């Protein structure tokens, strides 16, 4: 893990060379206020964005981290490596996104504020999605390398979609979710382990690890309205994004429960579906969150996503593993891949169908930012660009994933053997409990040790 | 669970027919701003309410959900069904509360914004309270039916208390807690299972399930100030409600610890009390949260609630089960029932005692909304109405609960047998761990399977 | 625990005699608005401070509480006693800090508002830090007594540092962390138990208790930017504090992972480091959070703290236990002690080096509050006072800790025997699981019971 040390040193140097505070963060703010005729400190973007930022921050570290703790002996790795790559990713994302979006032309410096922190968290979300596909099958060094490349690609893709194509993607259905998911699936496809199924008996949950995972699920679910609204336009846009997401997620929960029990043997509910598919509505409403989707529109999106995502877990994931040689540990294709694509399509359709009667003249301009270079764009054309954006996100994901997968296949990174997959023992000091007062657990541990000795 | 599917479809249709965005959410907001002379986006209610909303949202899904995970083998059901009925309840509540409170007379539509989301979460809180009484003894379909009726009744009761009687109930001691608790207790009374005690050995905790429950407790405790202040008047009212709740809860913790150790055999603390009674102060200060209760007044309320609630767990709950045939799984009578009633009484007394010297002339009018139809009401009269409101809440709870309990007794809903109570195995795919690397757990599972076979 | 009862009664009386609402909380707010020419309710400090307050509140109760649940059989004590002493401490802190800082000279009353709640939470943080040193080795009554004295000392120390010396300490590196840590270590030194190591086999973790502890770690880590910015000046100061903390913490994570794996036998990661050292950067950036530390400066601080803190766990903690007779259960010296001192030094240096070109003329005055009595102070002089403040904090900690330690050694407080340390059985009704359906756990329990019988 010396790589952490080296990279953190690099971060210090790069931040020293390139990153400064923006005008709302800098101590010259009193002068800025006078200069820009700002009357109150409340107009500092901090007060508009910070509560949403904190919700997003919880999603990244507790949400994603705990969602992946479901495995019986990979909880340390799930929450720990999630922590590591997110902490690295946000720094690298501040730089990469800064170079593409926030260069101050007067001094060539990246100027950061609270909105940059949100965007960095967003970027890292796509890395954590990809992490879900390879969970338990790669080394921490591989994860660091993957994150390095994925953040870089993300910044390029985001620049193309948001700036060049001028597509809308408030909650990142395309930019974050579709991209991250197909990236992760491509990596997992390249790193296919044909003998994994037979050798590993650890790819499953125990009772309490499933409860831990619900912590992740619920914090993701609750704060998703903040995620989708965090960088929306102030006022009605932010308000609308939160409400659309809230409604879509509520609908998803019901269809997930319905499908989970109806399509299972014995008619019992499956925790995997409840932990994951209930979130699909939040993904799918992301692109269009800021649009006039209407409350029932949001419910419809959530309705179908719960349905498709749960069916994906039941039928598609086993099919992908068997036939397509894609091993998707957390089922990110069902939670982020398909819902992300649906989100892109919903965005394209609802943009194309936007009218002045629904949005108001100024509302239409504000929502789609038909200003400056884009002031002559019509909703129909915007719809086309939205669709194009979705294709770009998926292409970048698949292409980038294959490339990075090939890099990760080099025998340099200390990846675990098939037998060591999904096992914290390889990278963590797991409590041995040999001196425990508890003879049963002690016995248990001896057995595990013996098993390892046999291998 | 096909019922989820059907009801979600109904929700889509009803939202399509009746629900639209309010003016702060609609894309016509730029026109609204000009029309209503609003100068800044910060005046959009989103920025006043959203952080509180998110805190309340956490209480509903993580707070209530995890509080009920304390049982050794019903954690999936606790957190999962909590999730299901809350997600359904908020949609139905948006409709029901909308019809009573937020119809736009110009077009007959329900207009929703962030305040409606908070109110929907509040309504669902009363359902989750009732869930606590029947936890582990009903099927998910029964819970859905119970929620459907309870939300409906809640909307009626709330309309009577807040609009017709014009009582104050910022934190819902009466409207939410007393109503929800007596509703749940009445349902549980109708569904009494005489042989439950003997048959079930699962009605208890294990070490780690008690720790999980503390997650619920703490998120409820910490965010209760947000709950009680979420829909208060802006400015001093909201500020005061938060501080009163903070103080009351702090006092409750100390008396709960004191009583728990003093009245137990061995002088040891009981996790059940710490998990539940520490919250009673938040319930009891709800109605009067916005009033000039004064800091010491809040402490006094919290002081007595910790005391009464803990004693309730020690003496009253066993008595109710033995003599009154009310099986109250989570002890909601101690956490929500009695404290809710106390809250109503505190509210009535402090309203009746309100004076212009304490509140200021304008402050008195603002706090009690002595405006329009109610502009001639005096504090003393208000106190009377507050007391009446409390009686209505309890009556609605008991009456509605008996009615709904009778509906739930119909042999339609797949309720579990006495032997299957408090057991996730009935409704969930519980991890079997047969292919586990862990022989002890495997052994354990075999035994469980055998036990079931014998039954 | 009758002490809880008595003290809570005292709190009621003292609050009745001394504590009132401040003008932003009082119902006379409408008059205040007119009088002070405040145009909007949004200017009520509630809307500036409350979201940060709630984040801090989560850190105190969930963050600290769960961070300490790592031990296999002391999770109830960790989260429960944390709850108890925090709930008591905030009340006592409101009084003590009120007497020193918030007396209204017109009527001699303490006037409280949301900022006081934040400060009370801050004060309690120092008590919970000290709790970490003695975790598992003291009785709840001892903890209550310790908290009573520590809060009192804290208020004095805080008054000297912030008001008399006029040092800056936004995030409390000195006032909270260094003071709390050295206080706790001094108490632990006085209460040294020479035979603890041999007798206790419970001072360690199990798999799931380590995952519980990560809940605490992550909520502390995520909300630390709110902690350090919660009482900063509005606008740029608050904004800057949040960003500096965010960056510092991110850097700490990487160096912690690096050192943890590089300096361990087998090259494996140690959960203790990940749970604790990753937070050191938040501590160390506290004093200077509001300064123009620059993004790279924050990274550098975080970089070194991750390094020093992790090395502390590996080398210093065992040394302190063996040679200095200081038993530091949670390693607070590595998480709060050293990083707190570093934070003080960073603050002194960056204050001394502050220039008008970096801060702007008004910015310099605002940031260091060079106003009124202190309007002629220069940055260089301020640097000297910052250094003095750090020495005062450490001295108060050590001196106070020794004093309070001596009080706690009196044979009055029912402290546990060496054999009972780190064991919830002494103070809690731990679920016995004798009637469990699970023969393995049952067997396990019998054994534990036997072991106890032998003792």
Automatic annotation (TrEMBL), chains A, B, C:
Subcellular location: Cell membrane
SUPFAM superfamilies the UniProt entry points to: Ammonium transporter (SSF111352)
GO (cellular component) term, any one: plasma membrane
Subcellular location, principal: membrane
GO MF entries: ammonium channel activity
InterPro entries in alphabetical order: Ammonium/urea_transptr, NH4_transpt_AmtB-like_dom, RhesusRHD
Keywords on record: Ammonia transport, Cell membrane, Glycoprotein, Membrane, Transmembrane, Transmembrane helix, Transport
GO biological process: ammonium homeostasis
Membrane topology: Multi-pass membrane protein
Domain Ammonium transporter AmtB-like per the UniProt entry, residue ranges: 44-410
Membrane-traversing stretches: 52-70, 76-95, 116-135, 141-162, 174-192, 212-231, 243-263, 296-316, 387-408
Gene3D superfamilies from the UniProt entry: Ammonium transporter AmtB like domains
Stated family: Belongs to the ammonium transporter (TC 2.A.49) family. Rh subfamily.
Summary of the function given for this chain in its UniProt record: Functions as an ammonia transporter. May play a role in the elimination of ammonia in the gill.
Protein name as it appears in the record: Ammonium transporter AmtB-like domain-containing protein
Organism: Pygocentrus nattereri (Red-bellied piranha)
């Amino acid at each position: 893990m010396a790589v952490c040390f080296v990279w953190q040193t690099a971060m210090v140097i790069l931040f020293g060379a390139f990153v400064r505070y923006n005008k709302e963060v800098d101590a010259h703010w009193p002068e800025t206020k006078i200069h820009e005729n700002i009357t109150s400190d409340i107009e500092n973007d901090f007060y508009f964005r910070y509560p949403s930022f904190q919700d997003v921050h919880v999603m990244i570290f507790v949400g994603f981290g705990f969602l992946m703790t479901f495995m019986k002996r990979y909880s340390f790795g799930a929450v720990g490596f999630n922590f590591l790559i997110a902490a690295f990713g946000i720094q690298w994302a501040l730089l990469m996104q800064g170079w593409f979006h926030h260069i101050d032309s007067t001094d060539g410096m990246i100027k950061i504020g609270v909105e940059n922190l949100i965007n960095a968290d967003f970027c890292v979300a796509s890395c954590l999605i990809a992490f879900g596909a390879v969970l338990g099958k790669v080394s921490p060094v591989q994860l660091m390398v993957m994150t390095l490349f994925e953040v870089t690609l993300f910044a390029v893709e985001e620049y193309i979609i948001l700036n060049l194509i001028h597509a809308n993607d408030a909650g990142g259905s395309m930019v974050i979710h579709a991209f991250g998911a197909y990236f992760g699936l491509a990596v997992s496809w390249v790193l296919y382990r044909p003998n994994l199924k037979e050798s590993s008996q650890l790819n499953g949950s125990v009772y309490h690890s499933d409860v831990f995972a619900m912590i992740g699920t619920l914090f993701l679910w609750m704060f998703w309205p903040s995620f989708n609204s965090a960088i929306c336009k102030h006022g009605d846009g932010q308000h609308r994004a939160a409400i659309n997401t809230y409604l879509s997620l509520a609908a998803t929960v019901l269809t997930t429960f319905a499908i989970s029990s109806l399509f299972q043997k014995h008619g019992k509910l499956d925790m995997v579906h409840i932990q994951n598919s209930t979130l699909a509505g939040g993904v799918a409403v992301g692109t269009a969150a800021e649009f006039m989707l209407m409350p029932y529109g949001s419910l419809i999106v959530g309705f179908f996503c719960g349905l498709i995502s749960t069916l994906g877990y039941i039928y598609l994931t086993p099919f992908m593993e068997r036939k397509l040689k894609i091993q998707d540990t957390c089922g990110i294709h069902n939670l982020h891949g398909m819902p992300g694509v649906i989100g892109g399509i919903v965005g394209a359709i609802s943009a194309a169908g936007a009218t002045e009667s629904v949005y108001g003249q100024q509302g239409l301009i504000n929502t789609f930012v038909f200003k400056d270079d884009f002031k002559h764009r019509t909703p129909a054309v915007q719809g086309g660009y939205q669709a194009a954006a979705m294709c770009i996100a998926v292409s970048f994901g698949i292409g980038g994933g294959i490339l990075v997968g090939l890099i990760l296949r080099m025998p340099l990174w200390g990846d675990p053997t098939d037998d060591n997959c999904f096992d914290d023992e390889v990278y963590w000091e797991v409590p041995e409990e040999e001196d425990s007062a508890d003879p049963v657990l002690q016995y248990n541990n001896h057995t595990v040790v013996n098993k390892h000795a046999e291998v």
